[in-house]
C-alpha cells in the first residue's frame, strides 16, 4: 500500500481544516456510555489546535438514513469533547449551509467547531458529489481521522478528498501502521483468533489470515459449522449449512499452508438460549440433540490460552461465546486473560472483542485496541479502505 500523507506532512497553521472523526459513540437516554472514540481522536485535534489550525470536526452518529433524528444529534458529544479538550467547542445544528459557512469564516486560529451529524443528509452515504463539495467549501484542508468509518465511501469520508488536499490524522495513521505492520511483517508465531456469530461475516478474514498466520483459532457461534464439517453432530447450535463445504476447504487450506487450525475440543451446551438455561460441558463429539453450544469449554480455553501465551503476535476478532450472559462468558474471559498475560503483541480488532476486554478489565493490558470493528475486519481481509485510498500519497 502507498504511504499516505498525514497532518505531520502539511502546513496547517491559520488554515480551516475539515476533520472527519468517528464520534459514533454508544448512547443511552441521551448520555454517552463509552467515550473511547472521542478520546482516540484527541491527539489529532490537540495537535491541530496547538499548531494554530481552525478545526472543523464532522462525524456521523448512528444510522439516521438521511433524516434529522433528534436522538442522533451530536450535542452531547460536543459537551464531552469540550470537557476532554479543556476548551470550548462550538456545536452547530447543521453540517452545511450559510450559518455553518458564516461560523467557520469567523473562526480564530485554534478554535474548534463541531458540525451536526453528517448522516442527516441523504447525500452522505451516497457519496454525493454536491454534498462533498459543500463540505469542501468550508475548509482548505481535509483530514480523515475516522478509522472506524474508513471502510465507507461516503461524502465526508471519501468524496470530499476530490476537492481538497487530503491527509490522514494521527489515529487513522496509527491504526494503519499497527494493522499494516502486523499483516505485512508479523512477528512469529503469529496467531489469529476469530470468533463471533457467523461464518458468513468472517469468510474474507479467515481466508486472508490463512495466508499470513501460523495459528488460526476458531471460537464463537461459527465454530459449530466447523464442528459439523468435521463430522460431529451439533444439536441446536448455530449452523450455516451452506458454509460447511467452505469450512472444509479452510481446514484443507490450513493443512496445505502448514497453519495450525484450532477448533473447540469441548463446549458449554445449554437447553435454551437464556441465562437461566440448564448448562453442561461436553466434548465436541458429544453435543446432545436439542442442546446448543454457547461457549467454548474449559479444555478448549486452556488450549487456546497456551497458544496465545506462546505467540509473539496475536490478533483477536470476535467473542468465543455469548459473553453478554455471564454463564457463557468464561471462554471469552479466558481468552481475554491470556491476551493480558502473554508477552506477545496483542491487537484487538474492535467491535465485540473490544467490548469484551473492557468488560473483563484487561483493556489497559492490550497493545492496540482498534477503534473500528467493520473497518479493521475489512483491512484484515486485505481490502482497500475507501477513506484511506482517497487520501494523498506521500
Ligand atoms: N455459540 C454462539 N451461539 C450464538 N451466538 C454466539 C455464540 N458465540 C458468540 N455469539 C454471539 O456473537 C456475537 C458477536 O458476533 P459478531 O458480530 O460476528 O462479532 P464481532 O462483533 O466481534 O465481529 C455476540 O453477540 C455473541 O453473543
Ligand atoms: O461503529 C462503526 O462501525 P463498527 O461497529 O463496525 O466499528 C462505525 O462508526 C461505522 O458505522 P456504520 O457501520 O454505521 O457505517
From TrEMBL:
Q: How does it assemble?
A: Monomer.
Q: Which GO terms describe its cellular component?
A: cytosol
Which pathway is this protein assigned to?
A: Carbohydrate degradation; glycolysis; pyruvate from D-glyceraldehyde 3-phosphate: step 2/5
Could you tell me which CDD domains the record lists for this protein?
Phosphoglycerate_kinase (cd00318)
Family annotation (PANTHER family): PHOSPHOGLYCERATE KINASE (PTHR11406), PHOSPHOGLYCERATE KINASE 1, CHLOROPLASTIC-RELATED (PTHR11406:SF23)
Q: Which UniProt keywords apply?
A: ATP-binding, Cytoplasm, Glycolysis, Kinase, Nucleotide-binding, Transferase
Compartment annotation: Cytoplasm
Instruction: Kindly provide the name given to this protein in its UniProt entry.
Output: Phosphoglycerate kinase
**Record: residues binding substrate:** 22-24, 37, 60-63, 119, 152
List membrane-spanning regions: none
Q: Which family does it belong to?
A: Belongs to the phosphoglycerate kinase family.
Where on this chain does (2R)-3-phosphoglycerate bind? Answer: 37, 119, 152
One Pfam family matching this protein: PGK
